[in-house]
Structures are given as structure tokens and as C-alpha cells.
Amino acid sequence: MDERGDDVTSRKGHTFTGQTFQHYSEMNPDRIYMDYNATTPLEPEVIQSISEALQDAWGNPSSSYIAGAKAKAVINQSRENVARMIGGKAEDIIFTSGGTEANNMVLHTAIEHFRRSCKAAEESDEHQIVWGGLPHIITSNVEHDSVKLAAENLQREGKADVTFVHVSKVTAKVEVEDIVAMVCPNTCLISVMLANNETGVIMPVREICQRIKSLNKRRKCLRILLHTDAAQALGKIPVDARELEVDYLTIVGHKFYAPRIGALYVNRPGTRTPLYPMLFGGGQERNFRPGTENTPMIAGLGKAAELVTLNLSDYENHMQGIKLYLEERLQAAFKDKIRFNSRYPGSNILPNTCNVSILGPALQGWRVLSNCTRLLASVGAACHSDKGNRPSHILLSCGVPSEVAANALRLSVGRGTTKADVDAVVEDLRQTVGLLEEMD
After folding, report:
1. Sorting pLDDT into bands at 50, 70 and 90, what band is 388?
2. Percentage of the residues of the chain whose pLDDT score is greater than 70
3. Is 17's pLDDT higher than 50?
4. Which end of the chain has the smaller Cβ count within 10 Å, N or C?
5. Is residue 48 over pLDDT 60?
């Protein structure tokens, strides 16, 4: 327990309490942050690693002098740390500017993979196979916009056919059989997120990959590539790319207390798994992603990955306990006026995510949040904040009625969220709801 009576968990000298928000809390003492699925603050150790890299590893990593060699060593160590976090090898990690670039690189690669496979089939003496039509991509209808909009753009420009498989309105998962049923001779990529950012539902990625790999053994030329965006899962649940059997896995730093930088796991890039660059330049990242490396941010990503590897079970247990306490307190405060949009039979949910609607005609999520005096949260994905006050299409896709979805609040807790924070947030919501009902 700390001096305020809040639970404090530590492991190997790393303490995670509200310390990450110490400066923020001093500036905003009455605010309580519960939007960790949107972004996370930097851990103190991460800030220290970035600062040290800025001071000591400022050289160009491609240079041979001491500052350059130090920068290269920092990058190499970070690559090892990131790989270890997701069960891969250092050579499987390609650093990117973030998750959006990583996801777009996968879709770009899939289109090029299809084109080259067609060309190889045409030129082959053994297989007289020539496909007509466009490359075909399968994904779900609840993906992050960096997959959804990129796929839609390929379709709009006539570069690909795309199938958006609907998630089940019972489980909120994309069902394995529904994915397999959509496979056709031109299918070149299947991309399904590991966990949804609004509902917290964990998708059956491993099962999908196993089924598709079995299909791939019977396909003569065009191998179906397998990708998962693991942005919301990393730092919350165990993630092992080899166990999932994916070809690609997207890593997003600012979701696990790292800076806004990302990486793409590729299972043996350029040998076992194709990877084609979108950029051309000085040859960095083995020509897959050229451009002088952002050493300080890579250092921060590596340190954050190391912390996840060391402390994941503690992080997961803490967040799970706090989320359960949050749900209990909300149920007690609002009784039959509450609807949890992150509970689905047969589905596992992220340990930190609570999507909830407080029922009532004047209790739309945006209205509740704009009147709260302490709670900082969102009504859905941060990337959808420009969509106005419309109900989340993710929730509607999962079978949540429109009037319930309109009232949704996405509450996502973090490593430092305490029971005292939960009590204060629930009281803030109780008072806000009472005020809005009086005004109605």
C-alpha cells in the first residue's frame, strides 16, 4: 500500500502506481484518466531511455564513429527487446513510424505479392495457372481505420477486391468459419485484429491462422498471407507471434507506455515471408523501411517492451482487478439502468476494457462526458472522434441496439488506476447522470 492507501504492485524494482501521471496530476488534480486504449503516458524508465539516447546516441546509426556506433547498439538492443516481447527474433522486427504505416505496409505487400505470384505462374513451365481479376483481401468489419480505410481505398481505386466479414452479434468475434468461407482463388491476405479497441473482445486469430495454413498446403501458387494488428493486446495479455502463427503482427508503442512509434513483426522478412517497401532511400532497416532511424524513440520502444516482458502478469492482474471493481461499482450505482457492451458469451475480453451504457434518453455518451467534472474517457475509438455524436459502428456491428450504443462510454483502465480512482469516477458519473436527468 502507498501513503494514500492505494494498492501498489512492483516487480524487479519496477513500481507502477500513479507515478506516471505525477506531473499531469499536479497540473490537473481533479481529473482521472480512463482512456488508456486511446493512448498511454510514458513510463519514467522509458523517458529516461529516450533522454539518454538523445544525449549519448545522437549520431547517425550508419556512421562508424562512437556516437553512431552507440546509436546502432541502442537500436539493436531495442530490436531484441521488442522481438522478445512478442516471441520473435530480432531479425523479424522492422521499425516504423507507427501502427498505421505498419498496417499499410502489409496491405501494400499483399497486392505486390499477388502480382508477382501471377507473373511467376504465367512464366512457369510446371504450372499453367493464370488468375483473372483482382487480388482479394479478407478482413473484419470492426478493424482499426488504418486497415479498414486502407482496404477501402484499394477497393475504390480498383486495385483489390475486399471482403469485410461481419462479427457475430452474439460473441462480437469474427467467426473462423465465416473467414474460411470467404476464401477464393485470388485471396492473398487475411487481416484480423487481435483485440478490439472498443469492446475489448479478443479475436480467434490463432484458430484462423491454423485453418488457413491448412488451406495453403493445398494451394499451388498463391499463398494466403496472415496478419494481425496487435495494438490493443500488447502490454495487456500475452502475445506470441509464433504461437499465433501469423506472418505479420503490428506493434504500436503508445498503447503500452512507449512513445508514438511502431514496428512490424514479419516472420523471416524477405525469405519466408514477402515484404515490399513503400519508401525508397538510404537502405536502413534492410531496405524494407529506409530513412535514418529515430534512435531516441526506438530506445523508448525497446525499454517499454522490456518492461512488458518483465512485468506482464502483474500488469494484467492489476488491470483485471481494477476493471472488475469498476464494473461492480457501476452496477451498484446504476442497477438496472446499466448495460455492459463488453460482455459477450464465449468471448474473452481485454483485462482493462469496460464499455458501458447508462440507459436514458438524455444520457448520450458525449453528453455525459462533457458534463463530468473528473472523468477523462471517450465514447469510442479516438480515431473516430470526428464522427460527431453518431453511435459507434463497432457497437452496432456487435448487435448493440442504436439507442444503447448512443449512450456508450469506453472506460479503459491502466497500470496505475486505483480503486480510489474508480470510486471517484463512479461518483462523478452518478452526479452527472442525476444532473442531466433533472435537466431533461
Report:
1. low
2. 90
3. no
4. N
5. yes
Cβ atoms of 188 and 112 closer than 8 Å: no
Cα gap 135→222, rounded to integer Å? 10
Distance CA 393, CA 166 (A): 12
Write the DSSP assignment of 250-287 as a string of letters. EEEGGGTTS-S-EEEEESSBTTTB----S--SS-TGGG
Query: What is the pLDDT of the chain when averaged over all its residues?
Result: 91
Q: Catalytic site residue 221?
A: no
* Angle formed at CA 51 by CA 48 and CA 55, multiple of 5 degrees: 140
pLDDT over 80 at 195, yes or no: yes
Q: How far apart are CA 116 and CA 162, in angstroms?
A: 19
Are 259 and 301 in contact by the 8 Å Cβ rule? The answer is yes
12-48 exposure pattern, b = at least 16 Cβ within 10 A, e = fewer: eeeebbbbbbeeebeeeeeebbbbbbbebbbbebbbe
pLDDT at residue 137 tops 70? yes
Annotated catalytic residue within 118, 209, 372, 383: 383
Gyration radius from the chain CA atoms: 23
Sheet with strand 408-412: strands edge to edge: 338-340, 353-358, 408-412
Count of Cβ atoms closer than 10 Å to residue 292 Cβ = 12
Strand, coil or helix: what is 6? coil
Alpha-carbon span 297 to 302, nearest angstrom: 9
Provide the H-helix boundaries in 98-237: 99-123, 145-156, 176-181, 205-216
